[in-house]
User: What shape does this take?
Amino acid sequence: MTTFLREFQSWYWNCDFDDAELQAAFDATDVAANPDDFQRAFLVLLRSDDTAARGTALDFYDRAAASSRHGEENPFEPYRAEVLEAAREMLRHPPRPGDAIAFEGADHASALLALKNDAGPEDAEAVLAVLRRRPDGELLYNALRAASTALANSETPDPRLVALIGEMAFDHALDIDERREALSALRGAPGDEVTALLVRATGEDDRRFQQEAAWALSIGERFYAHRALLERLDASWPDDERVFMATEVRAALAPGPHSIHWRSAAPESPRLLQAHRELRAPTSEEAHRQAFRTMLHSGRTAAVGIALDHFRDGEGLTRFGLDAEPFRPDVLAIARRILARPPSPEHGGADHASALDVLALLAEPEDAPLIAAALRRRDSAPPLRERAIRAAQDCLDRWDEPDDRVVAALEELIFDPSAAMDDRTLAVMALFDVPGPRVTAVLLRAARSSVLPVQVEGTLGLTYDHLIDQYRDLVRVIVASWPGGDDEPARAWLARSALGD
Assistant: This one.
């Protein structure tokens, strides 16, 4: 990140400042050695009364935000609220005239760039004012990106903004790339007016314009009502004219996942087979719901398990934005009943695996005995044991207080020499960042274990924020005892890094 920012100047500004302090701050970005150096220079620019300096700061914020997508921390993120307020304040004023420092409206271009990932309904008016001037170039594209976010983040999109962007999308006097960019700004916006514009756009001659509109119609609940239209469009596009958006449309039309744990099993009757097909490739919203109910309440082991998998899988029941909330009580009740009986030997425990995945998502503290019992099964297949540990981890993270019954079952597994080492270390990880003296005691016991992989994970557990200050010296002693070089445990570097030595 430091290298990227040192090489950066700004997107739009000629940064030769008359003010010595501002010039010094800008020059400091060329030689900054760490995030603190960048922050000091950034804040001088951001908090200045000079428009070019503030615009430059907003550009730096955007550059750092873009680089942070690769896993590096944005050094300016602590000042996000201040950045957004500066951007909004800049948009309240008329655009800056063009001169040798920047093109006309560069201040608005920088402000919109800073807002493009955070814009909300409150920004619609400012974005609308920019688009009404019918800008071009970077100012146009930045306004449309901010508009896209503002519309997507609005329960009821501003009808004036929708209408203006729609007008631009169908304005044949504009460049086709500008029209496509306008249409893409509507992709995530809710509302019947937006849907009508997208359907209209599929009738345009330009293939990419069609495909942009079709992609938007394939996302979320719009898919159900427009599947037939999407099928016709998909069939009409020659292979050599298909771009990314067409690929996404075809993926939406293709069958979704079979299941998570039941891929070698088939539903046990023609009726259930048809319901499964509907689950994977729904023809309507109501048919999708009914197919799920049919599978869930069938009483057939594989069909019920497949239904539970579709509830749990992000690409399953909610693939097209279907509201799964009404199914939660029945799904949880069925998962509980499954876990109250032994795993199905016929299906290799897949019924318990599906049920444990549901508990990972929905379980309440009253379900702790079911999770603890699953953790204590020593005859479980490895994938089933892993599901039990993952369920325990998710529940401990979600519940207000860690349940001692689940913690005790994890502790037994951690120190069971007959258990697989991967299960033992995964059980330690399930306790990471979980507060409470009972959990801390288990992590301390693990950190003092004679079994090195368990010791490493227990030590890592002590490096989390709520424990490191108290146990830093102990962690340092343990880390010093580990072999270095090629013999060092695989995750030992994480503990060393947490110490900051």
Notes: Residues 400-500 form a domain with the Serine Threonine Protein Phosphatase 5, Tetratricopeptide repeat fold (CATH 1.25.40).
